[in-house]
# Entry
Amino acid sequence: MNCTATLEFALIEKVSETLPLESTHITQISKGQRFTGTLLDDGSCGLCFSFFNPDPIEACASIRESTSLYDLKIENMLQLLHVKSLNLERIIAVSVLNALSQSILKQKPGSYAITFDTDPIDQLSIHSADSVVMIGAIGGIFNKLRSITKNLVLIDEGLQNIISPTIKHLDTTENYLDRATIVIITGSSFANYTLEPLIHWASNAREIVVVGPTAGFLPDPLFDRGVTVVSGMRVLEPTPLLTVLTENGGTPHFKSYCRKYNIFKRR
# Structure
């Protein structure tokens, strides 16, 4: 894999060389202010954090101009990943990419080292002496980390007004990542274009974990860049989940329709 290419290009290339995109179709796209989901005709579903974007899916020109979702060209939707703006098109494109990735993961279960039903940190050797940095708050994982080490830093744009010795300012991100031994990054950082520089800044870390509902993409291009674990959610019951999304539900509301998984880089 050519790591001089962008992560978007590498992910599109990996999906395109594995799936026949011309015969793959979208049957449903559901969006709420918290998450957006895309459902394929084989039942695979991909998710992306919506960043509280208020626009309906019809505001996406590609969708508005198509006669139906089924007739949308997958290749064109993936090209929206190159739009350098955190807008509706980018959010939908990430959910499409993740749906395609989930389809491949279901078809090729033996291609990766996968575990299910646990958080990634439950299967990593993390010690009290480790310096741990978490980019983006995931409450359950954060609480587990806090019970392991006092050397824990949380950086989350939505928590910048909270005064806490653990929460640090966005401006300090690079400095903390450079010194970290364990780094946990939420998958939504891919949607807002920050994942690639975060991985680069964390290059000294022993473990780099990308986790969350938005981390549903194929792991190979991330492994090539130094990530050691990609942890996402496989949607088992897309119909009720997509309904929850339209009702502005978040992870606590739809997690019962999913199964958590961790994909580990082979060493």
